[in-house]
Design goal:
Elements (H helix, E strand, L loop, with lengths): L13 H20 L26 H7 L2 E5 L8 E4 L4 E7 L2 E6 L12 E2 L2 E3 L6 E3 L5 E3 L11 E4 L2 E4 L1
Antiparallel strand pairs: 1-10, 2-3, 3-4, 5-6, 6-7, 7-8, 9-10
């Protein structure tokens, strides 16, 4: 080989590498976080807000066939309180006897997951925002937007994510 045939190969500029890595990281973050914003709709159960009587099925396979994932039994949700289902990104409340509501568990202030529900209030541990367990409205800031409603159904004693 002659010295003329050996030409240096130029490496990508540092900016190009940094931009590519940043774009790949952003794509991963958007993919991981983008699904929470698709939930909407009313979560009120029945015209009077009460669940229907009877006994419901027990396993998630049967619930899948019936059109929803079983989150909990009605007895698992305390009156005036609720329960956070972190894996599903949902908080289910029972603001009054037999009335079940569901909202996104993602705080509208900075996106933290809400944690405790008591005395009709859903609490965010990050910055102290509080939301109504009855309608998701802001009771105390810094959040300024209500929690998004999530659709649930009550089938017997089972609460299902619709």
């Amino acid at each position: 080989m002659t010295s003329e045939s050996l030409q240096p190969v130029s490496a990508p500029a540092r900016r190009t590498v940094v931009a590519a890595v940043g774009a790949a990281g952003l794509a991963v973050a958007l993919t991981a976080c983008g699904s929470d914003d698709t939930s909407s709709g009313s979560s009120e159960v029945g015209s009077d807000g009460a669940s229907s009587g009877g006994t419901g099925g027990g396993d998630n396979a049967a619930a899948g066939a019936a059109g929803g994932t079983v989150l909990a039994k009605t007895a698992d949700i305390p009156e005036g309180g609720g329960k956070v289902f972190a894996d599903q990104g949902v908080v289910v409340t029972q603001p009054s006897a037999g009335t079940f509501k569901a909202f996104s568990s993602k705080c509208t202030h900075r996106g933290c997951a809400v944690k405790g529900i008591s005395d009709g209030v859903i609490n965010c541990p990050c910055h102290g925002s509080q939301f109504s367990a009855a309608d998701g409205s802001v009771k105390k800031g810094p959040a300024t937007s209500p929690l998004a409603a999530t659709r649930i159904t009550v089938d017997g004693d089972s609460i299902k994510l619709a």
